[in-house]
Amino acid sequence: MNQQIEAALNDQISKEASSSQYYLAMASWAETKGLSGTAFFMYAHSDEERFHMLKLVKFVNERGGRAIVPSITQPPSDFDTVQRMFELLLAHELTVTKSINEVVDICLKEKDYTTHNFMQWYVSEQMEEEALARSILDKLNLIGNEKGGMYLFDREMLEIANASANAQKNNG
Ligand code: OFO
């Protein structure tokens, strides 16, 4: 495997692992706030990020490279408000999209069309994740600080997580 591509993919492995830890920290915070639906959503999201990481690990190794398992950095443990937490989630996803685009760019420069093709899955995944984060933030902006609204929001997060788990089951 081309060394530049291997390094870029290993860097992406590290980012997906960090995303998984970040969302795990959000899940734990939401759980301690009694927001069980939001916590369920974040636990599932953390698992998804681990899957993103594993998919890259397997690809690198199958293509003759060597995937490096990254060390764990401690994510924040407090997120102030649900709104703040989802703002951070969207900001984080935007940085991940940027780094996915950089990997795609390297693939084109190195004329590695196989990895380029593989990375397209991540390109569309990022579009979905950004759109989901934006739609959740729109809902939160509508709700404001209303307590009853937050109760309904939390229930909806559970439904979103369940719907996404079912869609994944049906696709795979
Ligand atoms: Fe792996 O998609 Fe989010 O970070």
List keywords for this structure.
172 residues, mainly alpha, Ferritin, 5 helices
Strand content: under 5%
**According to CATH, what is the class?**
Mainly Alpha
Coarse structural class: mainly alpha
CATH topology: Ferritin
> How many distinct folded domains?
1
Provide structural commentary.
With 172 residues, this protein is an all-alpha fold. The chain has one domain (3-171): Ferritin, core subunit, four-helix bundle (Ferritin, Up-down Bundle). Helices cover 82% and strands 0% of the residues. The protein is built from 5 helices and no strands. It has helices at 3-32, 36-62, 82-109, 113-143, 147-171. Helix 1 (3-32) packs antiparallel against helix 2 (36-62) and helix 3 packs antiparallel against helix 4 (113-143). The radius of gyration is 17 Å and the shape is elongated. The protein starts with a helix and ends with a helix. Bound molecules: hydroxy diiron-OXO moiety. Residues 16, 19, 49, 52, 93, 96, 125, 129 line the site of hydroxy diiron-OXO moiety.
Provide a quick synopsis of the model.
Helices cover 82% and strands 0% of the residues. With 172 residues, the protein is an all-alpha fold.
What's the helix and strand layout?
Layout: H1 3-32, H2 36-62, H3 82-109, H4 113-143, H5 147-171
Bound molecules: hydroxy diiron-OXO moiety.
The site of hydroxy diiron-OXO moiety has 8 residues, from helix 1, helix 2, helix 3 and helix 4.
